[in-house]
Amino acid sequence: MTGRVSELLAQWRVTPFEHDGVSHDVYYRGDGPGVILVPELPGATPEVIALGERLVAAGFRVALPSVIGTPGRPVSGGYIAGSALRMCVSREFAAFARRADRPIARYLRALARQLHAECGGPGVGVIGMCFSGGFALAAAADDSVLAPVVSQPAMPPPVGAGRSATGLSVIEEAAVSRRAADGLCALGLRFTQDRSVPAERFAAFERLLGEGWRAFEIDSSPGNADGIPTNAHSVLTDASAEVPGHPTYRANELLVDFLRERLTV
């Protein structure tokens, strides 16, 4: 395991970042506008690191905070279950049901401010995926974040009223709504049949952001032309994300285009 992690992250610089009692290692690589890449469950897997490498190659300085899991560890059922359990009992990620501000959201806003100070330019991007999807928009409550990317936002659980919940605190929603009126844009990505990311949730984001909401939804209905399974979930780290012509390849292209548009002077 150690050799595997070292191989994947050998070109990345790692340093801890602490804010308000929360501390995580953050892996940095690249030059250019700053982008925070928040891992999906179960953590900074090889697929997440590969996404980071693609962003570095596209001309961005990527900050990859290891907020959960072991960087470089491959996906497995047990690893996903263990990471999910740790997330559920962690104070950092709690308070979805109460719509309260979470320590992890404050941490990411502080990291965004530091990355912006280091990189300069108009602002930074934040990419959230799966459990961290909504955190990208929560980070946009801070003015340093100009390009939030909300990919398959699976929290809070899509049960009852949770199907149309944004996962933001009341204060975060007010801040994002105010910023949207001033031109904030967010990119949303999902598979159409993903039960953990219902259409009602994307509709809620659209109500919040208005014309600032840009959604790219990939057809995963039975018999779709691209053969995408109905249980497809991870858009940007999909196994076909580097296959030209595949919808997830197009999603990665849209991601880069969006970040360049918003972060390049």
UniProtKB/TrEMBL annotation:
UniProt domain Dienelactone hydrolase: residue ranges: 32-151
UniProt keyword Hydrolase present: yes
Alphabetic keyword roster: Hydrolase
InterPro entries: AB_hydrolase_fold, Dienelactn_hydro
An example Gene Ontology molecular-function term: hydrolase activity
Domain of life (superkingdom): Bacteria
Name of the protein in its database record: Dienelactone hydrolase family protein
